[in-house]
Amino acid sequence: MAKVDDRDLAVGRLYAEAMLGLAEEQGASDALLEELRELVDFLDQNPKVAHFLSSQMVDEAGRARVIEDLFRGNASDLLVDSLQVINRKGRLGQLQAVAESYRTALRDLRGWIDVHVRTAVPMDGALRTRLQDAMAASTGKKPSLIERVDPSLIGGLVVEVEGKKFDASVASRLQDLGEALLARASREVQRGGAYVAE
User: Fold this and answer.
1) Are residues 63 and 127 in the same domain?
2) DSSP characters for 12-33?
3) SS3 breakdown of the chain: % helix, strand, coil, rounded to 5?
4) What is the CATH number of the domain that holds 15?
5) Within a domain: residue 122?
6) Which of 57, 80, 108 is the last residue before a domain boundary?
7) How far is 22 from 66, CA to CA, in rounded Å?
8) pLDDT digits (tens, 9 = 90+) for 88-126
9) Rounded Cα distance, 54 and 13, in Å
10) Where are any strands of DSSP class E within the chain?
């Protein structure tokens, strides 16, 4: 998923807050969040559809028909109706920003905190639970884990929360060990050089 710029986020926030208000009334906030995630994933995997929906070369009515054909009956009426409103305003190109803004608004409403986790292999349920419990205890908020697999870590994990980074990866330990060995070798060479010079 590409990074969303601040201008798009500002636009997305307007739609996201309206959608969240309606979703809260219907008790469907979490379900809508999942639908928005799935929508962004679908558009990432189907760039031709994403281009069609965001193209200003396609008229509003044409986009509206495609939205109905693709999503009505496969997604909630709340999502489809929201997409139609966004279409009428010519903002379907900002769907990723809407989804990201919605997640942020819901996170703030629920008192969640984003915890970015990188692991060498996917986390199992036990590790995920331990990490969530630890983050909840240390932050006082409900952690929302954003997981990414990064084989270059070799093992262990890297956790980032509220701008702080905790690196407990094997790759990091190996790098630290390598730097320590290099520093020691450098000191030995310097001592040896000083001895010879004397």
Assistant:
1) no
2) HHHHHHHHHHHHHHHT-HHHHH
3) 70, 15, 15
4) 1.10.520.20
5) yes
6) 108
7) 24
8) 999 999 999 999 999 999 999 998 998 999 998 999 999
9) 18
10) 112-119, 142-149, 156-161, 164-169
What is the Cα–Cα distance from 46 to 40, expressed in whole angstroms? Answer: 10
Examine the domain organization and report whether 163 and 124 are in the same domain: yes
As a whole number of angstroms, the distance between CA 29 and CA 107 comes to: 11
- Pair 52, 79: CB distance under 8 Å: no
**CA 146/CA 129 separation, integer angstroms:** 13
Angstrom distance (rounded) from CA 112 to CA 53: 32
Q: Are residues 65 and 82 in the same domain?
A: yes
Joined tokens for residue 153: 């870590």
Rg of the chain over Cα atoms, rounded to whole angstroms, equals 24
Same structural domain for residues 139 and 63?
no
Q: Choose the weakest-confidence range: 7-16, 55-64, 167-176.
A: 167-176
- Residues 168, 156: Cα–Cα separation, whole Å: 6
